[in-house]
Amino acid sequence: MAHFEVTVRLSDVNESDGPAARQAIEERLRAAGFSRWQIVAVGLQGATHKNTSQRRTNRRREMGPDISRAGGGLLVAAVVAWTLWFLWLLAG
Fold this sequence. Notes:
Layout: H1 18-32, H2 52-63, H3 67-91
């Protein structure tokens, strides 16, 4: 069975401050029966949001290093090394 990641924006949270809002949402998610979830950000409705790249950077820090990006860099380095070796053999 496929697993999906869903982004949901809730606007009916009426609490006095950010930590209280986070706690209220956590209680509602538990009561709804969700077993795996993560609250990424809590902010005032209508307030300007951080840019998308900043949110991705923060999320990447929370989730740890991105293995696929590290593997991609290693692949590029291997291709460059092979190309240089091949050109060196042709020249020699």
